[in-house]
């Protein structure tokens, strides 16, 4: 009976979701007005004359676009437990994020309001969309396995992965339907945590799983090892959906299909330490539906302008298809006109759907090639399909020959190796040329960029690097693209 009540309440959230989708500009205007109203009582609001802001034009005029480093002067005050700095009251949680291009930790503020509006309510929306659009069953008749990070207590506030913060603050009805136990979920030692999760979950009726694909695969493989089963469905016959996000799922989907042993639903979310931004609302969709009513006001900087350091941002009203944008957010956590570092494209307008195509910093442009993650992910998928192999993880960095000529070194760990490595790399190179005209031009006759070099990474080498850098679990992942050799040299122990 309890599960039926929860299912009913969750399903009915679809009306609220549909209103914001059908009235996107009105929804965003309401959020901006609310943000400005609340921000007036803060130090940030005082510093930026919020009392004179009454529309988006004056908002842009008074508040500059900032990166994390530029915004840190305010975050630092929050970390010092000062009140009313970026949002009314104290900031009680900070999501610790290493980012994907830098080893330096970032501490992303999370207010109480944003914890619920920006994360927990977004999670409810995800469940509502799933129950309305993907399934005629109730996943609440079983348990959900959630794989998250760890927390550390700093007396005045908590710091950790946003997944761990959520696990610690979930309402009682969520915890009733979730495993592992909170003590296990928040363990810092990743290997100990995995073993405890297996103990607590292996005999349960698991209907849904949630977590970053790379880490979820590790867990599922360990469960198979422990149980002796050939597929996950032998252990959890009622498993029907995997909620995932954090990284591109395409390179992992075949591995999940094989290890699970039957077709299940996959529901993708676009979430980060800074918020939950978009959700898959259709089974076959070219993009994720932008979430417009969960405490986030969105702006977008065309990438051609961003590269010129022109940070004039536009709103949803002026975005266009097939253009790359750096995404800028203002939130009820007190992030104001904050560049999150992701590059997106709109796949649909009215309704607004987006896809992630790269990072503002995660790209290779050592020789003018402007290679972004979208290029490498597509090339990996195409080359793997052609050669019947599976790439588990990879990272790419430059090879410096001289200031005008060099190449790219690919560190790749294969789950299933190609029969011919040279042929695989030749095709990978070919697909990169097809995906990126700048790369193609620089590769012409090897004049600027030489043939890419493959370095095979043995099992657990990437894992060991993450472990050495305290990046196991949670949202941490192997950085894909770098403009220097720091990460490559660390992994190769040079």
What does this structure look like?
The protein is α/β, with parallel strands linked by helices and 494 residues long. It folds into two domains: 361 residues, Rossmann fold, CATH 3.40.50.12780; 129 residues, GMP Synthetase, Chain A, domain 3, CATH 3.30.300. It contains 19 helices and 20 strands. The strands form four sheets. The protein has an eleven-stranded mixed beta sheet with strand order 6-3-7-8-9-10-11-15-14-13-12. Helix 12 runs parallel beside helix 13 and helix 15 packs across helix 16.
Query: What is the fold named in CATH at topology level of the largest domain?
Result: Rossmann fold
By helix and strand content, what is the structural category? Answer: alpha/beta
Largest pleated sheet: 11 strands, mixed
Instruction: Give the termini distance in whole angstroms.
Output: 60 Å
Count, helices:
19
Number of strands: 20
User: Which regions contain 5 or more consecutive residues with pLDDT less than 50?
Assistant: 99-103
- At the fourth CATH level, what is the homologous superfamily of the largest domain? ANL, N-terminal domain
């Amino acid at each position: 009976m309890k599960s039926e009540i929860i299912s009913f309440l969750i399903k009915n959230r679809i009306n609220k979701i549909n209103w914001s989708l059908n009235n996107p500009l009105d929804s965003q205007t309401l959020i901006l007005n609310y943000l400005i109203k609340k921000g007036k009582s803060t130090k940030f609001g005082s510093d930026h004359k919020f009392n004179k802001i009454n529309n988006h034009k004056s908002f842009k005029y008074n508040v500059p676009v900032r990166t994390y480093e530029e915004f840190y002067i305010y975050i630092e005050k929050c970390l010092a437990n000062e009140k009313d700095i970026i949002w009314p009251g104290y900031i009680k949680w900070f999501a610790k994020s290493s980012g994907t291009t830098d080893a330096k930790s970032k501490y992303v503020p999370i207010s109480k309001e944003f914890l619920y509006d920006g994360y927990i309510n977004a999670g409810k929306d995800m469940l509502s969309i799933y129950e309305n659009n993907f399934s005629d069953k109730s996943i609440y008749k079983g348990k959900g396995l959630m794989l998250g990070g760890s927390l550390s207590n700093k007396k005045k506030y908590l710091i950790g992965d946003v997944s761990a913060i959520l696990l610690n603050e979930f309402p009682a009805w969520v915890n009733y339907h979730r495993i592992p136990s909170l003590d296990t979920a928040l363990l810092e030692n990743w290997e100990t945590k995995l073993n405890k999760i297996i103990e607590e979950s292996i005999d349960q009726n698991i209907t849904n799983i949630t977590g970053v694909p790379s880490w979820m695969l590790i867990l599922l493989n360990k469960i198979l090892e422990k149980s002796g089963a050939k597929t996950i469905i032998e252990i959890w016959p009622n498993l029907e959906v995997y909620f995932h996000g954090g990284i591109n799922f395409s390179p992992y989907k075949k591995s999940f299909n094989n290890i699970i042993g039957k077709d299940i639903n996959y529901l993708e979310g676009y979430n980060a330490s800074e918020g939950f931004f978009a959700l898959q609302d259709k089974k076959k969709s070219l993009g994720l539906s932008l979430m417009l009513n969960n405490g986030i006001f969105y702006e977008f900087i065309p990438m051609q302008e961003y590269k010129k350091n022109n940070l004039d941002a536009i709103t949803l009203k002026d975005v266009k298809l097939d253009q790359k944008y750096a995404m800028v957010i203002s939130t009820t956590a007190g992030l104001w006109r904050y560049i999150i570092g992701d590059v997106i494209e709109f796949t649909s307008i009215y309704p607004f759907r987006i896809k992630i195509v790269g990072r503002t910093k995660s790209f290779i442009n050592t020789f003018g090639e402007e290679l972004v993650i979208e290029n490498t992910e597509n090339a990996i998928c195409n080359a793997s399909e052609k050669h019947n192999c599976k790439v588990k993880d990879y990272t790419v960095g430059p090879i410096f020959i001289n200031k005008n000529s060099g190449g790219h070194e690919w560190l790749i760990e294969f789950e299933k190796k190609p029969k011919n490595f040279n042929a695989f790399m030749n095709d990978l190179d070919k697909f990169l040329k097809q995906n990126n005209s700048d790369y193609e031009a620089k590769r012409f006759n090897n004049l600027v960029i030489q043939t890419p070099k493959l370095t095979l990474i043995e099992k657990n080498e990437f894992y060991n690097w993450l472990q050495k850098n305290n990046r196991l679990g949670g949202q941490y992942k192997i950085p894909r693209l770098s403009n220097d050799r720091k990460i490559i040299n660390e992994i190769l122990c040079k």
